[in-house]
Fold each of these.
Amino acid sequence: MRLVAHGIGVRLGRRLVLQDVTVSAGRGELVAIIGPNGAGKSTLLKALAGLIPVREGRVTLDDRDIRSLDERARGRHIAFIPQDRLVHWPLPVRRVVGLGRLPHDASPRDAQAISEALSAMDLEKLADRPVDELSGGELARVLQARALAQEADILIADEPTAGLDMGHVLQLFTHLERLSAQGRTVIVAVHDVSLALRHCHKTILLKDGRVLAEGASNDVVTPEIVAAAFGVGVAIATLDHVPIVLAKQTLT
Amino acid sequence: MRKHAQRALVVALCLLVALAFAGSMMLGPDGLGLPEGGDALRLVLVEIRLPRALLGLLVGGALGLAGAALQGYLRNPLAEPGLLGMAGGASLGAVIAIHTGAAGLLSFALPLGGLAGATIATLAVVLLAGQGSVPVTLILAGVAMSSVAGALTSLVLNLAPNPFASVEMVYWMMGSLNDRSLEHVFIAAPLIMVGSLVLLSTRRWLDALSLGELAAQNLGVSPAALRLRIVFGAAMAVGAATSVTGAIGFVGLVVPHLLRPFVAYEPGRLLVPSFLGGAALILIADIALRLLSPAGDLKLGVLTALIGAPFFLWLVLASRREFGA
């Protein structure tokens, strides 16, 4: 499926958070959204997921306006992982993951999808544990497993790596790469620019609510472009075939 | 495993409600027993004891269910059915009915006054809260409406035409199942049942809401539709309940809280048990009341408050332990 934002503008209260943003993600693409704090990454993800209305332009899913789909249908096409890791009651892990099946309305695949999601996120041993007994990283994986259980064509995740140890960051991205290889579309906001360069086909760089650059990650994550967006001198190197991006000094 | 436990809980609560209902039907002013045959038996059972037991069941159920639904919707275990202002509105409507003397002329003017008050309060809360989908605006609107209703209720009490009227108002506000007739049942039952069904229909949405509003919306919850169902479901159930029995506190707070661990904290699964638990609690409290004070001077709402207040203290101590203070 193809998800496209056509020149969207979003206002939160009086603030114009996104202006004239045009981006797209196609089948099998793994897309990173990067940008300094307050650039509008979370807002863009919510608009792409159809969770907030846009003031200008529109978001389409295979040429259909996303806000014209009802909530349940949207939930079957797009799984969204919010930045806040909220679970308000100490529910068992399996039940939280099972909530991902709600848009499917008791389908025969439910049990299978839940156990696959648990195993993909390495959670089988924790399945019956109440979520208030988990560490922050474990909770993050539970909420990611919830989105996987949704079995949507498109997965949108807002800062899914925040608070994860390096092992689980790698495991998460390996899994996202696998999903995109299966033909799913994956869009992730990340703080660590190295992750975009290393794992994502495509990178969208936002600044002050506008798209500063969009394209193949190699073309977007360059010292010049990243420096212009983040206001720091940047070094990009490759160590053991792994690209790393580091801030060198603050530019004034 | 989980389903079995859930079913066992519901069956156990159903049995408890059935027992309490039967107990309520059997209990008269001279203790357990039925009057001797014929018309007296019919009169006592159908006209006196049945309305009392049915109202206990429905009102307790409505309060328990509305409490559980509001706690799930607001994701706050301290939410209670009065929070959205309907109970305050119903009380105001009822005291106005007493003040104007309408209640003295027509027996059902009092509950109708209560319903009118609850309806106006609900509409005011909806208008006040506006279109936004954030629950906190709803709470603010409800609290504001409750305080307006509370102030006006005090005013009506203050301006009571005679001491008897003010005593009647105060007694009514304490909440009771005394001297209720089948008319009261006919007024309240349909509204409580429809309101309860509306609240039950939010079951899966409340589960999804456990993950926060954004995730819930992604799982198919329409925030506007959910809010509508919660407000009008609670308004019908709580407004009708308060209109016929007066304010009965703590049931909607205590019952969901006690039952939550038995349903693995799932807000959706909590709804049916909370209806049954609320019904059982009110029926049992009403039986205890009649045994303790056969003359009927002790009011049901007072007894539930006496049970509820220590529970609140226990909650404070439990949360102190939890936060290590």
Amino acid sequence: MKNLRILPGEPPPLHDLVLTRTWPSRLDLKTEIMDTIINSLRPRGVLSEGDEQWLTLCLDEAVVNAMLHGNEGDPGLSVRVEVAADAQSWTICIHDQGEGFSADAIPDVTDPASLLLEHGRGIRIMREWLTDLVYYRGGATISMHRRASSPESVADRSDQES
Amino acid sequence: MPSEFLNVQAYENIVLAQITKERLLDAPTINTLAQELTLLLDRYPKISLVLDLAAVDYLSSAMLGKIVALYKGVKTNKGRMAMAGVKPALMPLFKVTQLDKLMEFFPEAKDAIFLYKRKPL
């Protein structure tokens, strides 16, 4: 996938942390993890109407990727979550214990030749809604950032423009 | 055909498959649903399938992949497939992945059924 930012180093430290927690890398905990993250942001007033649906989707993709691809389904490993929020934006970092990945391994599903692939759409969907999506530690940390005033999605913007 | 997540009504080879689950996020749900949908292709050759998502609020990329697999199976059997009732909040998922260019979308299932009845395969 073109333009996917995968950096080798650690992510910059987060300020205004509202949640730091580590969970076992077990898919049966996915809903608990997602609910805990959303509940940490809800009282901060940075989630507008419609945000929770998109955020749920992004978290689902990120947590599943961390557990299944990063940690290769090993329930003995863990995922660490950090959530930061201020009045205008939020950032969520999810760290797995894997080796990371290469952008070349992620297909560009908008390429007509890849349209019929049955995988590889998760990152594309996340990039659509997030203000910024960056991977650190070679891909073993995902950093999702969104400004509260961000447009819903490019698809919506193109609808409005047409 | 009893199903946990699916209501199926068939009018000869026009098959309406209504997904009844609101959240299509968990792997067991998605895999069960995909198996049930695939069985329709075995049961109805050259199917005209209307997949009704009116009840669905959450849809993961894994489920999108299953829908693509289903679409490919339908096409392999020389059938056709329509998506119906997709909520406005979910439509961007199909747009950003360009699946809206691959499949036909209808506001409601009855619109697709009406078209399929008028134009039999």
